[in-house]
Design brief:
Strand order of the largest sheet: 3-4-2-5-1-6-7-8
Structural class: alpha/beta
Distance between the termini: 42 Å
């Protein structure tokens, strides 16, 4: 099983939504996927996935031996996609990287991928989740403040021997075509990491988000093939210039 921590330098960049979208896309490729919500402070992966009313046990129950890990799993409406919900109560020092590793080890027999949604930033929750995983994906937006914080995360991941992949979220194609935000190549050069996913800005929520950007990201991660989405494609050329001038449309 491949364990990937999904992290970000700052909150509000769409890390949890990216976790859910990538999980759905990896499952669509035929993989069995579990999403672990390891953000114990601002946990809402169950809400994003629309599963909050199905939660019976959570990760705290697993750690405190009140249930087995498989009993805490919540099956989503997407085939082969499951959620291990975060704890809604205080866990104190009971959550460690070793705890998470043991849980992931128990899941490795059943699943092909585990995506671990961890807290934004580089504090204890980040270190705990990163220490339990083999790989990492850093989610950022193309804005300078987000890129600056993402750079701190990328540098810190190097101390764990992890070279992360990048997911650039909330990219406006019109601004990208006009050169008003950094290009994907520039972002890759700034952060010294490869961009495997580009997600356009959308007003949609998890269930209605466009699938193609996540399908391309999943293929890059699972198969190592294809290119990330180009959100600026529809804004180039004569008709693209008209579209940019009169609104995103």
């Amino acid at each position: 099983m491949k364990s990937i921590v999904i992290t970000s330098g700052k909150g509000g960049v769409g890390k949890t939504t990216v976790t859910a979208g990538l999980g759905r896309a990896l499952a669509a490729l035929g993989n069995r996927v579990v999403l672990m919500d390891a953000d114990f402070g601002l946990n809402n992966l169950d809400v994003v996935m629309g599963l909050e009313n199905r939660v019976v046990y959570d990760i705290a129950d697993v750690i405190n031996n009140r249930c087995r890990v498989r009993q805490a799993l919540v099956e989503s409406d997407v085939r082969n996609l499951f959620l291990l919900p975060s704890a809604h109560g205080y866990l104190g020092d009971k959550v460690t990287s070793q705890n998470l590793k043991l849980i992931l080890g128990g899941l490795s027999v059943t699943f092909d991928y585990a995506l671990v949604d961890c807290p934004a930033g580089i504090e204890a929750g980040f270190r705990r989740a990163v220490g339990a995983c083999e790989r990492a994906a850093v989610v950022t937006t193309p804005h300078i403040s987000a890129l600056r914080d993402a750079n701190k995360v990328v540098n810190l991941l190097s101390s764990y021997g992890i070279v992360p992949t990048l997911v650039v979220n909330r990219v406006r194609g019109d601004l990208l075509a006009d050169g008003k935000i950094p290009s994907i190549k520039e972002i890759s050069e700034i952060l010294k990491a490869e961009v495997d996913g580009v997600i356009p800005e959308t007003d949609g929520v998890y269930g209605t988000m466009p699938k193609k950007p996540f399908e391309l990201l999943a293929k890059r991660i699972h198969l190592g093939t294809g290119e990330p989405l180009d959100p600026a494609a529809g804004y180039r050329g004569i008709f693209g210039a008209i579209r940019r001038r009169f609104g995103r449309g």
